[in-house]
Amino acid sequence: MRTALFPRAALCVALGLALSPAFAAGKPAMLDKWTGPFGGVPAWDKVKVSEFEAAFQAAITENRAELKAIADNTAAPDFDNTIAALEKAGGALNRFYTYFGIHSSTLNVGDMPKIESALAPKQAAYGDEVTQNAKLFARIEAVYNAPEKAKLTPEQQRLTWLYYTNFVRSGAKLDAKQKARLSELNQRLASLYTSFGQNVLFDEQNGYTVLDEASMKGLPADIKDAAQRAAEAKKLKGKYLIANTRSAADPFLTLSEDRAAREKVWRAFIGRGDMGGEHDNNKLITEILELRYERAQLLGYKSHAHWRLEQEMAQTPERAVALMEAVWKPGAAAVARDVAEMQKLIDAEGGKYKLAAWDYRYISEKLRKAKYDLDMTEVSNYLQLDRLREGMFWMAAKLYDLHFSQLSNVAVYHPDVTVYEVKNGKGQHVGLWYFDPYARDGKRSGAWMNAYRNQERFNGEITTIVSNNANFVKGKDGAPVLISWDDAETLFHEFGHALHGLLSDVNYPTLSGTSVSRDFVEFPSQIHEHWLATPEVLNKFALHYQTGKPIPAALVDKIEKAATFNEGFRTMEYLGSAVIDMKLHLAGAGPIDPDKFEREELKKLGMPEEIVMRHRTPQFNHVFSGDGYSAGYYAYLWADSLTADVWEAFEEGKGAWDENVALRFRKNILSVGNTVDQAQAFRNFRGRDVDTQALMRKRGFVEAEKTAGQ
Ligand SMILES: [Zn+2]
After folding, report:
1. What's the CATH fold of domain 282-374+565-633?
2. CA of 10 to the centre of ligand 1 (A)
3. CB-proximal residues (5 Å) to ion ligand 1
4. pTM higher than 0.85, yes or no?
């Protein structure tokens, strides 16, 4: 749940506006139609960073011409000449955004940050130009209101509704003066989002902590090695460098015995974007919140949160808040119980200090060992990245009859990237899966999935191209990469997003794969985390990196018994972020001082003082480096309520590998994309609305409540 879909900023991409035919000479080669196998693949060799600006201009020129042809059509507007025509448009622009997105998220070095800053407002302006095109909107509206709409297929009707709604929500019905102001707001916001993300990246790359060997006590050899190599790369001989990223900070905070060093690493990590000076994000947040509020008012909504949630499964901020409140109390109670136990442990060991935020991961790990005799570093010895990847493939074969095989004839944008072909049980091509697992300079932290190409078939069979991205640290001299249990879950999570894209079976690209509401899209990913913990996957793929022996049954048993251990911490560090996100976007007209707001609201809410928000406001990329998850971080909890309920459907059947349940899950959820209303899709699978008690059971809050009450 730490992960996000790759945010594709441009509205035109979300709307599937695209273009293709002949274009004047001199356009950058990166806009060329993809050629080669599988209906064409991205041509990375044609991408020159220096041509991004020219390519964008050429792509929108081409797109303008095509949209003009649709808008100026003298025939009466109908589905084919308007909606379907829009679905066919935008090829060059989509290709531009695929390449540009890869470079801004995984190769953001050299001139790239500058180019990104220069292009962000222009991209926003073009999005507005499209949605504010009165002639085009008039045709969409005519199709939407025409009685003939009833004769279209349900999928076509939904697509028409979606175009109409997206245009209206983007200001198509405003007057000229309002439209101009809206566009100003969107352009300014786009610049602020870019600066925000770049500031966080700056602090992640420059805010590292340099330590002596003594501070590395408690850390396993592979982490020590990586820290030593990172220091050597900065010419810091004999030192150890802990990068200011989650994948480096979390293991250190979990394992380092040096309390002072833990505090140092913790402060650097939670201080990202909040260090004062030119890379501080606080002023940017204040302005973003003010502009978002003004935009919501302009569009006729009470707040940014109301505008954002209208199209989500939750529909209103109130329903999202209600779910968060329902979980808050049991979550905080679980933390209080855990903290009391941890303090006892500290006292028993003669530590004369009160548990602080930088001790939480370290002491809770000790508590896990004490209570369950479970050592997660021992577990990591069985979690080899390459084997787990094979485990995911095995899961996909068993559940969905999908088969992965590595290709060597498809170009990549970096030598670390590998490409796999995906086929179904009949040997037919389904799509491509790109895997970019390792951290490097210029790659944003975390893990995510994105689609290079959506599945569609209304205009010929087009197959999916998706990618999974992560930030694992490469092994020394090709040694196996050992990852944590949390990271293994993340791996399966992102692969779940990929499967959602690969199993798409729809006609129109705008409705394809993961193009569903934000609070639904995390559910197909989260549910796949569950299969990691099945004995079948662990026995076959959790193999010791030295002996090759499968993980002992006794260890698996302990993992199962400790399944809800530390759930209070996980819930509260997440909820702190989710509630603050929502409250910031319900707070109305500013100005808001984010540091003060965060401090005071968390106090009012009764946030346990031993836990800090998973993403503090000044580093909250989900919310402030784009509109993507703004007033939307709650989505992970919402989706988890669906996940928990659907997992129980497997358990009510023959268990994790029940073929019939998997088939129904695929048919009703994974393959339908956005062709069905998401609440209805859930109902189609489960036969009823979601039971949120399943979430309480999953997190161990129901039993804990009972015990506490006894
Ligand atoms: Zn996700």
Report:
1. Neurolysin; domain 3 (1.10.1370)
2. 19
3. 3, 522, 525
4. yes
